[in-house]
Write a structure and sequence with these properties.
One of its GO terms (cellular component) is B-WICH complex. By secondary structure, the chain is mainly α. It is built from 63 helices and seven strands. A three-stranded mixed beta sheet has the order 2-1-3. The longest helix is centred in the middle third of the chain and has 56 residues. The chain is extended.
């Protein structure tokens, strides 16, 4: 803000003119009004706009007051602030202000700006802020929209901008740009008047900068006659002006380098060239030979953007000139060499330009077709640079799309390499390999791109498109992938297609791969449309077309001829398809039909393997269809399912070994229909794949598939663009090779190689003697022999290391492929668990899935395949298996085995090294408990729902427990051992949430385990285990499900036992020396508070005398620890829990000494002296007003050990509103003659634990006494029969009126409900209403 100080001299003059009343009014402006101007300068756009809107709303209510003058002055001052980011903010706010209030004169605002920032009087150091203030001031006038209507202000503004143009070092070309923007909106008459003042007649000045040229082109477009009279006839595209135009365009390109946009002057020049019919001259001389002569990327991007913007403006001949010139080759080279990390890629921006062009000429298919062909013809040694998935084709109409597909097909059959705009990069030119320049290589690269382009067109087609185009592409791919023409025939149009370059094996492999990806697209995208219209699937149509081609053996020949067995398998497949059509209404038949069609088409790709699969599939289909009518009758006689299911599972596993997404979907669909017939042996076939230790056959299948992929990859061209997946595989391979090199480098030298090396060296030394002095006597022949021996030895070692490295890479790749195969096989497990959750075979999946999870989490490998396998297995296990709504109900034959499995799972959970793995094992045991319990648990819970919390629970039905298969005693012993291990083992993987899940689902097991858990609260074990026992017991006793399992006497006895245990460990409260001991104290107090809530809520009668004495004995110790700062991180929490427990016993927490010294004033002082000293300014609306003014300072003094009335033990300290209500109630009580606090003989208001409970007669007597005094007593707990319509502040009742009436201490049964305020009253209101309804007859 140092720049603002320079303008301080102008402020007294402007402010001195204002009356004294206005200056006094400015001082009374609200803080809100002044904050508007701070928010306007903030960098956040939303904050600025919001502040501007609020300022305008504020000024509309006071349009003539002092606020308007102050706002204008403040905004004008902000135009020249030192922060550059704040100047445009103030300028925009001033523009909106002038737009909203049209009565403000623009000339007066301009005058104030010129006076405040006078360029003649300003100091040199403040010149830059002054220049920007004048510039932003004029821009504010222009943005208000009123400048073009006010001629006087317009002329003055243009004059000021003309002066600012001389300060180019500070403002660059911004003033001239503002002049161009203003003149583009003024009327022509005013333009003609202003033009001579802003534009000189010198053409050199016009061609000196982009802004001058832009002003000239604006005048040329709007007032050509006036411009000609001023400058004469001007030819910008003459030979002497072209170098100047190139320099201007390069300057314009540099100025917008960071903005990524096209300069306006370039597009204006293009329009002028088109208008004067000089476009070829402009494009050749200025763009291609000028801008691209020594190209920089800024100039190249300007040319690219100019190309995209010019497309809608050009004719067909001009488009042909542009799309076959040097610029389009330069664009193609940029697409090839540009990398995202180091160079801006222009393809997305060019796609927008082309999309805009195609969308604008939807009615002209000729222009659309010409544009797509032009961009598809930009090739790098035969390979088009545009991506195959270019999405601009969505703007094509049907005719243009059909013509484009025909052009692609013709270019595939007869590649016209001369019609392509081909180029080579700099590196390719340096290589000069003769094999790269042959036409066959260019034709292969072009055909490969065309095939992928055709498939992407089908993928991007809309569903409402004509299916003739899709069928044309599919037939084309199928024919040229597997067939060839012998003689043309009109019945098959594909036979008339002749090749100029014959198809080689590499091209056919690409077509085959693309054809099956096309099948995936057709199956996924057009499935719903085919079903809605009743069409047959595309695979069925293609099988029919293939059968037609096989029958025309005179005209068409298959590339790989079928044997008799393979042709017979094809014919049998067609018969089976016809049989399945008869029962096509069944989903099972549809799934088998899809499988047959897919394997039938694979017969052309791999005849030998597919022939065997077809025979097995047909056999399985026939047996499954024949078995269905008599399945119910033969089910009782046969103990096993027919073997066709196992054969089908093997077929599906072999299909899943292929990396095809379509096969994966079909396998899932088929398995979903046959999983109901699954046998144990068939399931073991699937599980054997997931456990590679037991079966290696599937691994070999995957590895073989990898070798085929590798051959296909090597068959493709090295310079072509590969798929993303192949790139990732190659990157992974390179990384693995680097890692293996590092490992080999770090490994120790092979001892065998060391011995061989020593032997060679010793043999060399033996030739010259044993002494070191004789080494020099070795001759040349001996040295040469030694060198040869060493060279051969190291060469052998190098080959050995290379072989080891290749073996490691092979094993690593096999492991990766094995994991991918296992991930695909998990699809079958997911289908089985989802569609057949009640199948008994699902129970056999628990331990195999757990072993996969355990092995994956123990594995040190962190590859993507390992993570995907782990995540998918865990998702299937938890979501689809353990949390499934349905489960197996027929487990009577295997009840003993399931109980043994439960014990084994719990034991394995306790022996895991990782708690996450132990959680999976524990959840598996809970799932088995659910299966064993069956439906009895649900019926039992439904029968318990009507019972409330306070009603007497019914005893557990022993017959219901005996009805299920769960052996409660056995299971209790199992989990009792696990609980003891958890509470005694030093590092147990078991956790508290595991047992809480067990207790919440099975309360009867929890009831049986409580006798095991309660003794550990006060057992002489580790403090950490005691804390865990307290925490587990606290969460367990709060559960609703557990209370139903206990009778009232049992429950009361249990609470008493837990209270006794807690009382034992509270003897050492405050003596913690370690973190574990401190956590034990916190957990014990939390458990104690939970017990108090339970006792109060259920009105239990327990003896709290010993507990109260123990707690009171620890008060001084806790206070000392708090003051000394021991365990400062949790001492305050411990203190709060302690006083929360004391509060429930009726003992209120005393005020601390600091609070007493701060809040309680001295009695000898006057009330005025107790007020706080004013600090700073505080508005009247923010000052706190005391409502009880009659309370004297003496009344505020709290007696020592006094207690306050409370509303509930679980509620937080009272806020200001409640405190004021409390003070008001105390003051009213004193007015009526009732003291706010009552004292005992010992001046201690804590309740005696031996005080008997109030009788109804005594309560009634006290009510009458209080009504006489004018107050209404409120009991701690309202009777259940009454409904509280208003929440009153409960006042603690004290029976001891005087010291004489104090009763001696003795042991008695104390009801916590009658001695303390209501606990959980608000939280248990719903349950009380339920109990009231049940008790009401």
């Amino acid at each position: 803000m140092a720049e603002v100080k320079g303008f301080a001299k102008a402020e007294p003059e402007a402010s001195g003119e204002a009356p004294h009343a206005d200056r006094h009014g400015l001082l009374e402006h609200s803080r809100e009004f002044l904050d508007f101007f701070w928010d306007i300068a903030k960098p956040q756009q939303e904050t600025r706009l919001e502040a501007t809107e609020k300022l305008l709303e504020y000024l509309r209510t006071r349009p003539t007051g002092s606020e308007m003058k102050y706002a204008l002055k403040r905004l004008i001052t902000g135009l020249g602030v030192g922060r550059e980011a704040a100047r445009p903010c103030y300028s925009l706010a001033l523009a909106q202000l002038l737009q909203s209030f049209e009565n403000i004169s623009l000339c007066s605002i301009l005058k104030q700006i010129e006076e405040k920032y006078d360029l003649q009087k300003v100091k040199k150091a403040m010149m830059r802020p002054a220049l920007f203030a004048n510039l932003f001031g004029v821009l504010a006038l222009f943005q208000s929209g009123r400048l073009v209507k006010d001629q006087e202000a317009l002329m003055k503004s243009v004059k000021l901008l003309k002066i600012l143009t001389h300060h180019y070092n500070h403002l660059q070309g911004q003033p001239l740009k503002a002049i161009v923007d203003i003149l583009s909106e003024v009327p022509e008459t005013m333009f003609e008047e202003i033009l001579p003042k802003v534009l000189t007649g010198d053409l050199k000045v016009v061609l000196s900068s982009p802004k001058h040229l832009e002003l000239f082109l604006l005048a040329q477009r709007r007032v050509p006659a006036k411009l000609e009279s001023l400058m004469g006839s001007v030819d910008l595209f003459s030979d002497e002006n072209i170098p100047s135009l190139v320099n201007v365009l390069k300057m314009a390109a540099t100025s917008v380098k960071k903005e990524h946009r096209l300069p306006d002057v370039a597009l204006d020049l293009l329009r002028l060239a088109l208008k004067e019919d000089k476009f070829p001259l402009f494009w050749k001389e200025v763009v291609e030979q000028g801008m691209l002569k020594k190209p920089c990327w800024a100039s190249s991007y300007l040319c690219f953007r100019l190309l995209g913007a010019s497309l809608p403006l050009l004719s067909e001949d001009q488009l042909r000139l542009v799309m076959r010139g040097d610029l389009i080759r330069h664009f193609g080279e940029h697409v090839v060499v540009a990398k995202p990390q180091n160079l801006f890629k222009f393809i997305p921006e060019m796609s927008k330009y082309v999309g805009t062009f195609l969308e604008g000429c939807r009615d002209d298919p000729e222009r659309q077709f010409a544009m797509l062909v032009a961009f598809s013809s930009i090739t790098n040694q035969g390979l088009p640079v545009m991506p195959t998935f270019w999405r601009v084709t969505r703007f094509l109409n049907a005719e243009a799309l059909q013509r484009y597909v025909s052009w692609l097909r013709d270019m595939f059959l007869q590649p016209d390499l001369d019609s392509l705009v081909d180029f080579s990069t700099t590196n390719q030119k340096k290589a000069q390999d003769a094999s790269f320049n042959v036409p066959e290589r260019a034709a292969f690269r072009l055909r490969k791109w065309i095939v992928h382009r055709l498939v992407s067109l089908v993928d991007h087609l809309h569903l409402e498109m004509d299916e003739a185009l899709v069928e044309q592409v599919a037939r084309f791919c199928l024919f040229h992938a597997f067939f060839k023409t012998k003689k043309a025939t009109p019945q098959i149009p594909e036979t008339k297609q002749l090749f100029s370059f014959p198809l080689d094996n590499r091209t056919r492999e690409v077509i085959i791969s693309t054809f099956f990806s096309l099948l995936q697209t057709l199956s996924a995208k057009f499935r719903q449309t085919d079903q809605a219209k009743g069409w047959r699937p595309w695979t069925y149509r293609l099988v029919q077309f293939a059968d037609i081609l096989l029958n025309h053996n005179r005209n068409v020949a298959i590339v790989t001829p079928f044997t008799k067995q393979q042709r017979q398998a094809w014919d049998e497949m067609l018969k089976t398809l016809k049989e399945l059509e008869a029962c096509s209404s069944e989903t099972k038949a549809t799934a088998f039909q899809h499988l047959l069609l897919l394997v039938g088409l694979h017969l052309f790709k791999s005849p030998t393997e597919s022939c065997d699969l077809l025979g097995d599939i047909q056999t399985c289909i026939k047996k499954s269809m024949e078995q269905k009518p008599r399945r119910s009758r033969s089910k009782a006689n046969t103990s096993q399912e027919p073997p066709w299911v196992e054969v089908m599972v093997e077929i599906l596993l072999s299909l899943l070994a292929q990396p095809s997404h379509l096969i994966r979907q079909v396998a899932r669909n088929v398995f979903g229909h046959i999983c109901s017939h699954l046998t144990p042996h068939a399931l073991q076939l699937i599980l054997a794949v997931l456990n590679p230790e037991t079966n290696d056959e599937d691994e070999n299948v995957v590895v073989t598939d990898d070798s085929s992929e590798k051959q296909l990859k090597h068959a493709e061209d090295e310079g072509s663009d590969s798929e993303d997946s192949k790139n990732s595989v190659s990157d992974m391979d390179s990384e693995d090779e680097e890692e293996s090199e590092e490992e080999d480098r770090d490994e120790d030298v092979d001892p065998g190689f060391r011995q061989q090396l020593m032997a060679v060296l010793q043999s060399g030394k033996a030739l010259g003697g044993e002494d070191s002095e004789d080494e020099e006597e070795l001759g040349d022949e001996a040295m040469m022999a030694l060198d040869e021996n060493l060279a051969s030895l190291f060469a052998e070692q190098k080959l050995r290391i290379q072989a080891q490295r290749e073996e490691k890479n092979k094993l690593r790749k096999e492991k990766t492929l094995r994991r991918d195969f296992q991930i695909r096989v998990l699809d079958l497990i997911e289908v089985l668990v989802t569609k057949q959750p009640e199948n008994p075979l699902v129970l056999e999946l628990l331990e195999p899935l757990l072993s996969i999870i355990q092995r994956s989490m123990r594995s040190s490998s962190s590859t993507k395949q390992e993570q995907d396998l782990l995540h998918k297995t865990a998702r299937i296990f938890m979501q689809h298996l353990c949390r499934a709504r349905h489960y197996c109900h027929k487990v009577e034959p295997c009840t003993d085995a399931l109980h043994t499995q439960v014990e084994r799972l719990v034991q394995q959970a306790g022996t895991q090294a990782n708690a996450s793995v132990a959680l999976y094992y524990f959840n598996a045991s809970l799932y088995l408990l659910r299966v064993l319990k069956g439906n009895t648990s649900k019926k039992y819970q439904d029968s318990q729902k009507p019972q409330g919390a306070g009603t007497k629970p019914e005893p557990v039905d022993s017959e219901a427990q005996a009805a299920n298969c769960l052996d409660l005693n056995f299971v209790t012993r199992v989990y009792s051992a696990a609980l003891e291990s958890f509470l005694t083992k030093r590092n147990s993987p078991l956790t508290i949430p595991m047992f809480l899940g067990l207790f919440s689902r099975y309360p009867m097991i929890c009831k049986s385990l409580l006798p095991v858990l309660v003794p550990y609260v006060a057992s002489p074990s580790r403090p950490r285990h005691q804390a865990q026992a307290c925490l587990l017991l606290q969460k367990t006793l709060s559960a609703k499900e557990l209370r139903v399992c206990f009778e009232d006497p049992e429950w009361e006895q249990l609470i008493g036992q837990v209270l006794d245990k807690v009382t034992q460990i509270l003897h050492n409260l405050g003596e913690a020396q370690s973190k574990a001991e401190h956590q034990k104290e916190l957990s014990s107090l939390e458990l104690l508070n939970t017990l108090f809530k339970t006792v109060n809520h259920e009105k239990l009668t327990v003896d709290l005398t010993a507990l109260l004495g123990v707690l009171q004995g620890q008060q001084q110790k806790l206070q000392q620890n708090l003051q000394q700062g021991n365990h400062s991180s949790g001492s305050s929490r411990l203190h709060d829990l302690y006083w929360q427990a004391m509060k429930m016993l009726g003992v209120q927490r005393p005020r601390s000494e600091k609070k007493d010294a701060k809040d309680a004033p001295n009695v000898t002082q006057s009330p005025i002296s107790t007020k706080q000293k004013k600090k700073g300014f505080l508005p009247e609306t923010k000052k706190r007003k005391r409502k009880s003014k009659d309370v004297t300072p003496e009344q505020d003094v709290m007696p020592e050990n006094a207690t306050l009335a409370v509303t509930g033990g679980d509620q937080p300290p009272s806020t200001g509103k409640k405190r004021r209500r409390k003070m008001k109630a105390q003051a009213q009580a004193q007015v009526n003659g009732t003291p706010a606090t009552k004292s005992l003989a010992s001046n201690n208001l804590t309740l005696s634990p031996t005080t008997p409970a109030e009788t109804p007669k005594l309560q009634k007597k006290k009510e009458k006494l209080s009504q006489v005094n004018g107050t209404t007593p409120v009991s701690p707990i309202e009777p259940e029969g009454k409904k509280q319509h208003q929440k009153a502040l409960p006042i603690k009742e004290v029976l001891n009126k005087s010291p004489k009436s104090a009763l001696p201490r003795k042991k008695a049964r104390l009801s916590l409900v009658s001695r303390s305020p209501s606990l959980l009253q608000s939280g248990a209101r719903k349950r009380k209403v339920v109990r009231k309804k049940e008790q009401t007859p």
